[in-house]
Amino acid sequence: MQTIYLDNNATTRVDPAVFEAMAPFFTERYGNPSSAYEFGRQVAADIDRARRQTAALLGCEPDEIVFTSCGSESDNTAIRSALAAAPAKRHVIASRVEHPAVLKLCRHLAANEGYDVTLLGVDAKGRMDLEELRDALRGDTAVVSVMWANNETGNVHPIAEMAALAHERGAFFHTDAVQAVGKVPIDLSAVPVDMLALSGHKFHAPKGIGALFVRRGLPFRSLLIGGGQESGRRAGTENTAFIVGLGKACELAAAHMDEERTRVRELRDRLERGLLAAVPDTVVNGDPTSRLPGTSYLSFGSVSGGDILRELDRYGICASTGSACSAANPEPSHVLTAMDVPLRHAVGSVRFSLGRFNTAGEVDRVLAVLPGIIENLRVGHSGGIGHAINP
Ligand code: PLP
After folding, report:
1. Which residue from 333, 384, 385 is spatially nearest to 122, judged by alpha carbons?
2. Closest-lying ligand 1 atom to the alpha carbon of residue 101
């Protein structure tokens, strides 16, 4: 059976061109980039190229890029670094819909390190309110961390405006752009964020490679203490093959951004329109006017998202649900909870996330099977245990 992979916000397939670019670094170009001979210096030059490719995608300077192991490391580094740079300030602002890489760190800072944390809310469409941020900012706010795009709804937030507000009150601004980079244009010469986290595996580089943008001149403290790699900003021998892969993925994303965004959005809209027309009592979660092109987060009334995933799985169709629950034991995701999505819809939520390798034929296959699956489940009212949403 052919796998139909509609879970690209969870992770993506490594692009064959990325894999090809990485291959020599395992067996031929395996020198240590810090070594004082040509065999090492060549690899250092390959890392420099990847840094330029990454910077080009983001509209920043190469020396503003620090390679890390993942998005979570980048987020943790950014927030910890901002706190270290402003030790007298004890207030942190994030949002209720952040990924655990930010949200759990904020909870940890409040519970164990004496920080005061304010979590901004969202409205029923998952949108943030600039006035709420303005009111939350204080003289002792060290850092504001708001994600560029949400991994469940796909909502794209007003990051430029939020960063400007944070700066008015002297706070640093970090954005978790793990779901946005490679999917929507980002120009850091125009958006005044101080730090930005990205992760390769969300846009066709491998899992286990990330980067952190740190604006030039910003005070910075490394999370890992050790060797002087990454200009002293991230200790540890460079993961050369993966860094090269990330650079290639950035180059591909930049080269194909416009056409890919349009194509993926059309596929997503075809799926969404078809399901809304064919399945009664279906709603779209998120902001229809400001969403990632490939994300469709749907709630089907009177059915469990976990049951839908299990049935889709029988056809080889991969998606995620926003509730780790059964009809009997509902526990919607923190994002749906923050949006106050009524329980009968939250329980039946499924996220489809489309990307580079999806086709219209795959969308049509889902349209052919899913309405029937839901109808059967509604008749049977089965309430099995659901799967948690893939991050
Ligand atoms: N932030 C967001 C919005 C994500 O979706 C993810 C995905 O897992 C992460 C952070 C963490 O990235 P990583 O898996 O590379 O640590």
Report:
1. 333
2. 10
Q: Specify the CATH class of 16-253 in words.
A: alpha beta
Distance (angstroms) between ligand 1 centre and the Cα of 282 equals 28
- List, in order, residues 6 or more apart from 40 with CB less than 8 Å away: 31, 32, 33, 34
Contact 101 CB / ligand 1 (< 6 Å): yes
**Of 60, 70, 106, 325, catalytic:** 325
Pocket of ligand 1 contains residue 151 by CB under 6 Å: yes
Domain boundaries of the chain, sorted by first residue? 4-10+257-388, 16-253
pTM, two decimals, is 0.95
Query: In CATH, which of 3.90.1150.10, 1.10.10.60, 3.40.1360.10, 3.90.1010.20 is domain 4-10+257-388?
Result: 3.90.1150.10
Q: Counting atoms of ligand 1 from 1, which one is nearest the CA of 199?
A: 15
Q: 176: Cβ below 6 Å to ligand 1?
A: yes
**Ligand 1 pocket, residue 70 CB under 6 Å:** yes
How do residues 277-333 score in pLDDT, each as one tens digit?
999 999 999 999 999 999 999 999 999 999 999 999 999 999 999 765 544 556 889
Ligand 1 site, residue 200, Cβ cutoff 6 A? no
The response to whether residue 72 sits with its C-beta less than 6 Å from ligand 1 reads yes
Mean pLDDT for all residues in the chain: 95
147 C-alpha to center of ligand 1: Å? 11
For ligand 1, the distance from its centroid to the CA atom of residue 355, given in whole angstroms, is 17
Whether 325 is a known active-site residue: answer: yes
The residue whose C-alpha atom lies closest to atom 13 belonging to ligand 1 is: 71
Condensed to tens digits (0 to 9), the pLDDT of residues 3-51 reads: 999 999 999 999 999 999 999 999 999 999 999 999 999 999 999 999 9
